[in-house]
Design goal:
Blueprint: H1 7-16, E1 29-33, E2 36-39, E3 44-47, H2 50-53, H3 62-72, H4 85-97, E4 102-108, H5 111-124, E5 131-135, H6 144-149, E6 166-169, H7 189-201, E7 206-212, H8 225-237, E8 241-245, H9 260-263, E9 269-272, E10 283-288, H10 307-322, H11 325-346, E11 350-354, E12 360-364, H12 375-387, E13 390-391, E14 393-394, E15 403-406, H13 414-433
Parallel strand pairs: 3-13, 5-6, 5-7, 7-8, 8-9
Antiparallel strand pairs: 1-2, 2-3, 4-10, 9-10, 11-12, 12-15, 14-15
The protein binds 4'-deoxy-4'-aminopyridoxal-5'-phosphate (PMP).
Length: about 425
């Protein structure tokens, strides 16, 4: 019914949009399938940012489409006070899949709200405490509370003063250690600093440490293996809850269903979002059954139990299992990373390459010794990629605006991977010339 649009309608629509994101390419996407998208001129793209990492099993997977079609024709909405079949089936399934004693699920439709819900449950379980501790380059969303909890950027500073009960600590960003230490000999000083912070720098004690398992928006920063184990120990010792924000890492992208499994650590609360819905909006958190639950009315939203998204999530989980996408993700991640490492030998603008799985970040630097961030180059790289039919991710609004990302759908084909690598090298060559 509304499948076509005139040039005048596009112009009028864009004029009428109160945009909360920022500059966007002059492209109108009209069709998608698997890892590919097509614009209104029928130009084809490979979506290496999986459309904000929500299309991890690719666009329009037939199993998801079928499940959604059926559900939409049966019952499309029940409000928070009512059960529906997909919600009950999904809750059981997530409780079973989540690690350790994480088996109480709460839902919403956006990752930011999921993180806020997790923070609310942590507050409920930490009487008298008023502060959260988060990481310098962490990202948790764009509501008031989650903006305060995220990296600082000029765009956020107008909102942060409304909720200031967040204390930031440096994460183990070993390529640029905040303490100027060498990771071979630092003995995880950043964890010691976190321990000191929890003991001495949080008035009244911390409600929780909130962090991503692998940082996404802030700069695709992955951590060494025992970092998370040590943080878990420090939290337990200080009687502070640990919240993992898996909105971006959850459901396969790191090669595990949850990134926390990579590190063998079970948090007290774990958020999810993005990929779980197979292209439909769904988010939430899974909490330890040891925590006190919400009282009536404390955390419910009109569309929290949206059955269409819930059924899409059930289908998504089946696709991940049936198509062995976790294994594929590990294999492709290793292959792409090895090819990037070969390119790093040729192009000094490639400063650092970080995994895991298909959560690959490439830090662009003007000079590999000074490590000066190549921010303009990263932006040009992004534009060049789009021109050449590959949409790469870029850490646009973090403090680190010079990290480009390869985070395609896990269903990306071998041929598509080759195209991505060819275009990647072409873009790197073109921005290298300008440095
Ligand atoms: N947490 C993390 C780790 C995220 O990556 C994001 C989104 N990039 C969010 C929370 C916020 O999710 P949403 O945009 O769905 O509110």
């Amino acid at each position: 019914m509304f499948a076509t649009i005139t040039a005048a309608q596009i112009k009028a629509g864009r004029r009428a949009l109160l945009d909360g994101w920022g500059p966007r390419p002059n492209v109108l996407m009209v069709k998608a399938k698997g890892a590919r998208m097509w614009d209104s001129n029928d130009k084809e793209y490979i979506a290496c940012e999986s459309q904000a990492f929500a299309l991890s099993i690719g666009a329009l997977h037939p199993m998801v489409v079928e499940a959604v079609r059926e559900q939409a024709g049966r019952i499309s909405h029940t409000a928070y006070g009512w059960d529906n079949i997909p919600m009950l089936l999904l809750s059981q399934k997530l409780a079973k899949l989540a690690p350790g004693n994480l088996n109480k699920v709460n839902y919403c439709l956006e990752g930011s709200l999921a993180v806020e819900g997790a923070m609310k449950l942590a507050i409920k379980n930490s009487p008298g405490k008023r502060y959260f501790v988060t990481m310098d380059h962490g990202y948790h969303g764009r509501t008031f509370l989650t903006m305060s909890a995220s990296w600082k950027h000029p765009h956020s500073t107008a909102y942060i003063p409304f909720i200031e009960n967040v204390i930031k600590v440096p994460e183990a960003y070993c390529y640029r250690c905040a303490f100027n230490l060498d990771c071979a000999s630092c003995n995880l000083f950043c964890v010691k600093y976190l321990d000191d912070t929890l003991k001495n720098r949080v008035p009244g004690g911390a409600v929780a440490v909130l962090m991503e398992v692998v940082q996404g928006n802030g700069g695709q920063i992955s951590f060494m293996k025992n970092y998370h184990k040590k943080i878990r120990e420090v939290c337990t010792k200080n009687k502070v809850l640990l919240i993992y924000d898996e909105v971006q890492t959850g459901f396969g992208r790191t090669g595990k269903l949850f990134a926390s499994e990579l590190y063998g650590v079970v948090p007290d609360i774990m958020t999810f979002g993005k990929a779980i819905g197979g292209g439909y909006p769904l988010a939430g958190f899974i909490a330890s059954d040891k925590l006190k639950p919400f009282d009536p009315g404390e955390n419910a939203f009109t569309f929290s139990h949206f059955p269409v998204s819930m059924i899409a999530a059930l289908a998504t989980l089946e696709v991940i299992e049936k198509e062995k996408l976790l294994e594929r993700c590990v294999k492709l991640g290793e292959y792409i990373t090895s090819r990037l490492m070969e390119m790093q030998q040729k192009y000094p603008i490639i400063g650092d390459i970080r995994g895991p799985g298909l959560a690959i970040g490439i830090e662009l630097v003007k000079n590999p010794v000074s490590k000066e961030p190549a921010v303009e180059e990263a932006n040009k790289f992004l534009a060049e990629g789009i021109k050449n039919g590959v949409i790469f991710g870029v850490s646009l609004y973090g403090a680190l605006g010079h990290i480009v990302k390869i985070k395609p759908p896990m269903v990306i084909s071998d041929d598509e991977v080759e195209t991505v690598l060819r275009v990647f090298e072409k873009c790197i060559k073109s921005v290298s010339k300008r440095t």
